[in-house]
Structure formats: structure tokens, C-alpha cells
Amino acid sequence: MELNSRCRYHFFVLKGCLRMFFIGEKGVEQTIQFAIENWWITDYAAFERQGITEFAIQAVEPTCVMQIDFKNQMLLLEDFPKLERYYRMIYQRAYAALQMRTKYLYDFSKEEFYHHFNNHFPEFTRRIPQHLLASYLNMTPEYLSEIKSKLQS
User: Fold this and answer.
1) Which residue among 17, 52, 117, 124 is least packed, with the fewest CB closer than 10 Å?
2) pLDDT in tens, 66-124
């Protein structure tokens, strides 16, 4: 999915890792979400209204995805009502994760945020390049490197 394009698809990661990001006022990429195997990712607001997205989705490593467009997702949910509950749970979990990330950005120092993230999601800190992880954690790659070097000391 490219910036400023119509958001047509909801993506399911079969293999690999994706990231969602936007480009801030200063031209810096800001990562807001990652998706690994068995996770869904899209710009939910733009997908729902079939509008223009302000985000881009990019593969972080070789990735295989399935995609479904809005019309087919709606037909699928009509034909299989139990999937409605499945998607509701997906959206609730995604929203809850966003709420907690926002809370951590306010409550934790940058160092505490990294340690919390690393303790709860070690698969991400192993798989994701440092500059992308730093972007997600709202810090510079250099500062993230300092935090990691303290751990090794």
C-alpha cells in the first residue's frame, strides 16, 4: 500500500513481516505498526471508507500475504456471520494495542519503553532492523544503540 493511494485491501501475513508508516512534517518516516505471521494490517479508517490512506505498508523481510478487498470482505462476512465476530476481535485487539502503545509513550521513558517492548515482543527486536524499531519506539537509531549497549555492559 502506497502513501496517498486508495486503501483497497486488508492484508493477512502468511510469512514475513510488514510495517505501516507515515512520513512526518520533517520528511522522517514514522513506523506505527508491524505485522508478522498470522496478523492483519491495513489503514482501517481508509479501508472502511475506501478512501485515500496517509500510510504506507512495506515489507521488512521477504513476505507472503493474502489480501482481501472491501467488497469481498463484506460479502464474506454476510455469507459467514461467525467471521463477523472474528473480525471484531481483530479490530478490538488492534485498538487495544494502540491504546497501550499510546499509554507507554506517555508513561515510560524511552529506555523503559524499549525494555518493555523487548520483554513482551522479543521476536520483533530480533527480526526488525534497528532503524525501523527505533522509528516505532519514537527514538533515534543512535539512542536505541546506546540503550542496547548498556544492556551488554
Assistant:
1) 52
2) 999 999 999 999 999 899 999 899 889 888 988 998 999 899 999 999 999 999 989 88
Cross-strand partners of 7: none
Beta bridge partners of 34: 19
Which amino acid belongs to residue 54?
E
Residue 136 burial (CB < 10 Å; 0-12/13-18/19+)? buried
pTM greater than the 0.85 cutoff = yes
CA 4/CA 85 separation, integer angstroms? 30
Question: Which run of H or E residues covers position 33?
Answer: strand 29-35
Q: In 3-state terms, the chain is what percent helix, strand and coil (to 5)?
A: 50, 20, 25
- Look up residue 66 and give its three cell numbers: 493474502
Cβ proximity of 51 and 2 under 8 Å? no
Q: Which residue has the higher pLDDT, 95 or 1?
A: 95
Q: Give Dmax over CA atoms of the chain in angstroms.
A: 57
- Sheet strands (E) in 52-147: 56-59, 64-69
Q: Rounded to whole angstroms, how far apart are CA atoms 25 and 147? A: 27
